[in-house]
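Appendix B, record 7
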Amino acid sequence: MRSRVCVLVSGGVDSSVLLADKLRQGHEVYPLYVGAGFKWEKVELAWLRRLLKRLKTPRLKSLTVTRSPMQPLMKSHWAITGRRVPDAKSASRSVYIPGRNMVLIAQAGLFCALHDIPELALAILKCNPFPDARPGFLKSMEKTVSAATNSRIRISTPYAELSKDQVIKRVPGFAFQLTFSCLRPNGGKHCGNCNKCEERREAIDNLSYL
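Structure tokens (predicted):
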């Protein structure tokens, strides 16, 4: 029997594929979404629920949504204000949100401890340039979360050596049209002009079956 795993999921391409991949491998999957008060979250969460409905299986457990508001700490950040959002021509580093993974992992780690789930899976890719995605940081968080909760929780990053093009090929026939990754949603849909929209479009354009 495969183990239980919590997948930290946003509804974007990478985390959605990871969730489907874990299901395909036979795991019992617990999806977790952590809201921080960013502009796109309401729409993002709605799309995520649609995707989970499509993937429905007894091994896919109900979505858990937690909140860890970051507005008080970063009131003027574009992720909070919705102004000067990184556009399609901006570099990957422009979408950095300080401490985001630290907050996400703290919440997800506690969830794992409280529900006796031994693995927390993150969809971190090889191209991720941010300090809170580095192996050293993740190992430190793994030790901290385990020590703080008196449990053994393993933080796994199965895609850490893969490119996005490699990731999207892992689950043939996956419903990429139900993924959502946009910094400035318009009418509940992708704006088509932000950094994340461009990244998603480039990846999906490489799939011949869509």
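Remarks on this record: The chain has a mean pLDDT of 93. The domain at 4-205 is CATH 3.40.50.620 (Rossmann fold).
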